[in-house]
Amino acid sequence: MTTKPNILLIYTGGTIGMIKDYKTNALRAFDFSQIVEKIPELQQLNCKVTSISFDEPIDSSNMNTKYYIDIAEIIESNYKNFDGFVVLTGSDTMSYTSSAISFMLENLSKPIIFSGSQLPIGDLRTDAKENLITSIEVASANKNGTPIISEVCLYFEYKLYRANRTTKISSEQFEAFTSLNFSPLAESGVHLKFNEQLLYQPKNKEKDLIVRKNLVNEVVILKLFPGISDLVVESIFSIPNLKGVVLETYGSGNAPSSENFIITLKNAIDQGIKIVNVTQCKSGSVMMGHYDTSLMLKNIGVIDGKDITTESAIAKLMYLLSHGLSAEDFTMFFENSLRGELTDK
Length: 345
Fold this sequence. Notes:
By secondary structure, this protein is of the alpha/beta class. It folds into two domains: 6-211, 3-Layer(aba) Sandwich (Rossmann fold); 219-334, Rossmann fold (3-Layer(aba) Sandwich). It contains nine helices and 20 strands. The strands form six sheets. It has an eight-stranded mixed beta sheet with strand order 4-1-5-7-10-11-14-15, sandwiched between helices. The chain has a four-stranded parallel beta sheet with strand order 17-18-19-20, with helices on both faces. Strand 14 and strand 15 (192-194) form a beta hairpin.
């Protein structure tokens, strides 16, 4: 790392990049190439900031795997020239996007910090400036030239999270994200304090970055609810070319024990469809076999998602399905932590 860290700011779209024209009250895109002039506080940070923006900023609702690849390729092509990266996206799908990027980038040894805001950067009461400034500070933080952060993170409202552990919990509060199964990696107050015992440490910093760009998006999330009909469940599993299902179950991984439901899942698994059991609860873990209503799922080959979030589970499915793994290897890789996304037990 250079004496003065070089940070690349990547703007894809989202609320943070909007600024209000006070004459018309219309929102227009913020020019991030003028970021230091517009936000002079950045001059107090001991780093150099360069920006790059998508040709056409996208709303978070339009985020998809093509844009995941675009973000990953920007990082890949600039990886050797920068010490850290800050990626600004729409907050609504930020947990999905940042989780996917965490799996797509192998041998990562530099910080990638996702952030955004609830209010546009030009608003009087905006949260955008603090989120942006601290994200850049985190991305440039180092000890004796070595980055403190070496993973994909999400920074929002004074807290730095492991990205693939997050979920958005509020559309109105500045504290929009949480990570209930894994403590924050850092907290910003009077001082920026890192919880160093939680930080991911690269096993081999000399390995080259590998970017996995093949993602399988023939996947679906099926959330159970009392009274869900057999026809609905059968229709989901009859989707042509379906490769994987994130099954949101009750409590610690429980699901209906009806014969039709179990047979539908077993037939899907026999056809090669991967089914991952995740809890609908915001915190806690799936415990396959803890109750009879989850023991049957375990017996037919449903994968134990443990304490992974739905956002991370869908990203991990897309990532692993592209590897052509055997059923046994797929289960083994999914049920074990690859990027700190779940707690190994």
